[in-house]
Structures are given as structure tokens and as C-alpha cells.
Design a protein that fits this description.
Helices cover about 75% and strands about 0% of the residues. The protein is an all-alpha fold. The N terminus is likely disordered.
Amino acid sequence: MCVRTLIPNEVTPDAVTPPPISKFSKAKEKYMKVHDELVQKARESSEVSELELESDDTDSPELTSDILAKSTTIYAKCLEIVMRHLDTWKHSKTCKILFQTTQPAHVIMIAAVLCVISALVPTSDRINSRGQPRARIMSLIYLTSFALHFGAQIWMTFVSGLSLYFALPRHSFGEVQRVLFPRYFTINACLSFTTLLIFAKHHSGRIWESEITVQLAGMTTAFFIELLVRLYLTPPLISLMSQKTLIERAAGVGNEVGKHNPGSLKHCPHYLKLHGAFRKAHMFIAMGNIMTMVCTVLHLHYISSKLCVL
């Protein structure tokens, strides 16, 4: 008899059956496969989006037909070029001399005084013909500069300043004011000088009349206050604000909204000295701004009394 027939239960190595696969293993393999497919799709979509970002936005037909998107892209490119040149100029010797020394401020102030004196000197050159194109253009520039000046004062003092102070953390509000303060007083000084120059030339032969003298005195006061604030008070204020912000951030304070809470710095003499100097400079700037607004309202009353439209 054959030996294999006597051992029916003999099993060869090749005939070993694998253990049964459980339902958990099948589900695990299924979800791993789904996960791999999702990851692959995400990678493909990210590669497609990167290619779209690298391509020019103006090449797509939707953006080409959208004038607003196209103009925004052009403006961003122009602004990038201007800022690049401005950064290069900031590191030049000319910029350091103009903005890191006090001599240019003195030169600007002397030039402003001489220009105002020359504008107030009586001359025979008057803009007295309302029908002439030159007179209409000068009247348009005069009214535009005055309207922009008064609108900027109202917006900065009663809308922008108060709204941001009670809506942003104190440090964020300080960063905004650090950018707005120099530009605000620079623009206002230029607008005040334009209004004063045109008004003085138009009333060159009547500067000694009481009504004209009051208006010229008010506009001259507003111009010199704004120029003084921009040249001599704004740079120290920004410097004190920067020093104060660094100390407050190191101490972990300055994130309160609508109030000043020094926290642990209320016993620091150096911080209190900086804060006192900052408050003093800010108070002088605020007083100067209020005085210029009074002068502007005075001239607004004068213009309203001369209107013949209503």
C-alpha cells in the first residue's frame, strides 16, 4: 500500500491556506485607498493653482474684460516700482541730510516766511475779471484747496481719529497715526498755502481793509501752525511713540481698546517720563489742530457771506 494513502492529513508547505481576512482589514484598506486618492487630487489641484498664480492675471479673458481688475493690477505694478525707487532713495545721503537733521526744516520755514511776505506785498497784479479763463481757473483752485483742507480737518479730527481710537487696540491705533500724522499736516500746510496765496493775490490792493486783514491773518496763522507742527513737533512725537511702544510690548501691555492702561509699567520712572513727554507733544499738536480749524471755520464764514448762488 502506498504511504500517502496511509497519511491522509499530511499537508505540504505549498498547500498552506492563508488566514481569513477580517472585515476590519478590508475596511482599513478601502479607506486608505480613498485617502490616497484624495491626497493625490489635492496635490494636482495645488499644482494647477500654482501655475495659474504664476501666469499673468491679465491674460485670462475674465480679468481682461474687467476694467477694475486690470486697473488694479496696473496700479499695483506702478506702486511697486515707486516703492522700490523710494526705498533706494531712503538709503542715500540726500535723504539722511533732509530728514535726519534739523537744518532742512529751518530752510523750509525761512522759505515759507519769505513766500508769505511776498504774497502779502501789495501789487497791481490782481485777478479782478471774473469772465477771464485765468480768473475762473484760479477760483477753482482756491475753492478746491479750501474744501479739501476743511474736509481733511473734519475727517481726521472727528471721524478717523475717534473711530479708530475706540475700535482698535492702542498699539494698532498708534501704528496708523504714525503714518497719518506726517501726511495730514503736510497736505494741510500745502493746501493752506495755496488758499492763502490765491486769496492774497486776488485782494492785493485791499489787504489793509479790516475784513480782508482778518481773513489773511487767520489763513497765515493756520499755515504757519500746520508747518510748525509738521517740521518741529511731528518727528519728536513719532520718535517718542516708537520708544514707548517698544517698552510696552516688552512688558506685555498696550492691547487695550479706547483707554491707556500701563499695567506693570506704572511704577517705571523711565516709562512715565517718556509717556509724559509724549502726552505733552500730543497736547501741543492737538491744540494747534484746533486753532487751525478755528481759522478755517472763520474763512468758511467769510466765503458763505460772499456767495451769490443762493
